[in-house]
Each structure stands twice: as C-alpha cells, then as structure tokens.
Amino acid sequence: METTSEENQEQSQEKKGCFECCIKCLGGVPYASLVATILCFSGVALFCGCGHVALTGTISILENHFSKITSDHAMLTDVIQLMQYVIYGIASFFFLYGIILLAEGFYTTSAVKELHSEFKTTICGRCISGMFVFLTYILGIAWLGVFGFSAVPVFLFYNMWSTCAAMRSPVANFTNVDSICVDVRQYGIIPWNATPGKACGSTLGDICNTSEFYLSYHLYIVACAGAGATVIALLIYMMATTYNFAVLKFKSREDCCTKF
C-alpha cells in the first residue's frame, strides 16, 4: 500500500511538472507577433493573388471594349505588367519578413528570458531590434499608400456597376438609355484619342454582365481588404517590435547594473 501511494505521488508530481513546463512554453509564445504574422500572410496573399488576376481582367476589358487599338493602351499594359512583377516581389519579401519578425518576437519575449537565465543582450542585438522598429514603421506608412491606391480601381468599377444597376432598375425612367455612358478616358487610364473610349446604353450593360467585369470587380474588393488587413498586421508589428526593443533596452540596463 505504501509503495502504491508513493507511485501515485510520483505520477502526480510528474504530471504537475509537465503542466508547469507547458505553461512556461505557452508563456514564451509572442502572441502579438503570431497574430500579426498570420494576418500579414493572409492580407498579402489576398492582395497579391486577387490583385494579379484582377489586373489581367482589367487589360482584357479595356482591349475588348474601350481601347481596341493596341498602341493607345500600350503604356498602360506595360505598367500593369510591371505591377504584376512587383506583386511577386512583395509576396516574397513579406513572407521572409514575417518569419523574421516572428523569430525576433520569440527571442525577445520576457518569458523566453525567464526560461533561459543565461540570456544576455548585446549592442548588435539592440541595433537589429531598433532596425526592425524603424523598418516596420516605414512599411506601415508605405502600405497605407498601397491601401489607398488599391481603393481606386474599386471606386472606378463601382461607378460602372452602379450606372448599370441604375439602367436596369424598374424605378428609373430614362427616355434615352443610349445617352448614359461611362467614359474611362476621364480617369486618365487611357489617352483621349483612344477609340471608342466609352461605352453607352446596351453596350455598357453587356460589359457589366460579362464574367470578366464581375470577377475583376470583386477581386479588387478582396485585394483592397487584403491591403487593409496587412496595414492592421503592420500596426500590430509596430507595437510588438517597439515593446521588444524596450525590453532589450531594459535588459541591457539590468546587465550593466549587475556588473557593479
């Protein structure tokens, strides 16, 4: 009986030790950086994937309905292709940058330093952490611009969609439907000498009913939402990296004090 009770006590102590170890490990997870990384990956994936396909659909719509002469929209085609290549670079960069920031969050969490008492800060480590703070702030400001820029095609497609919806509305009373037009030349997308440059009446309604228009419009909305999610993720990264840098500064002062 005594042996059984001792075994039970040993098992309970082992379970307690495993539980405490799990709690310490969970305490060492930088949840802010983890949430920001997931949100950043999701936002960048939506922005890059949907934006790339939407840009391809936009070229097709322009070539088939608004600018049938290739030379009129040659510059726009080159710009869109350049933007698609930039999208590849953005996706690759943020995949690596998110992993680096997540790793930096793990190594600067206070709970990790409690697990590893030999943890010491160095000038190089503090400089790297400060560099991440500065770079994250710059990227946050840049992505605010990207978010605003991604709302522009949503606005343009919404104007076209709302015009088509107004023509189909039974409440609307138009004497001449062909007088209702959407002229994309006024937005500076294509030059003024592009032909036809605008779509009116039933032609405009046919454009709105195409799968290319419907898909591109909704993909631009999703891409804009992805850019907004990336901005939120970078804001979380800003707070996390600033906190990590402050922790490193505080730890360096502790190290200096313990030397004397």
From TrEMBL:
Q: In its UniProt entry, what is this protein called?
A: Glycoprotein M6B
From the broadest rank down, the organism's phylogenetic lineage runs: Eukaryota, Metazoa, Chordata, Craniata, Vertebrata
* Superkingdom to which the source organism belongs: Eukaryota
Subcellular location per UniProt equals: Membrane
| GO MF term list | structural constituent of myelin sheath
Q: How does it sit in the membrane?
A: Multi-pass membrane protein
InterPro entries named among the record's database cross-references: Myelin_PLP (IPR001614), Myelin_PLP_CS (IPR018237)
Q: Provide the Gene Ontology terms for cellular component.
A: myelin sheath; plasma membrane
Per the similarity annotation, which family is this? Belongs to the myelin proteolipid protein family.
Annotated TM spans: 34-62, 82-107, 128-158, 219-243
Classification via Pfam families = Myelin_PLP (PF01275)
Q: Which gene encodes it?
A: GPM6B
Keyword field = Membrane, Transmembrane, Transmembrane helix
> One GO BP annotation here?
axon development
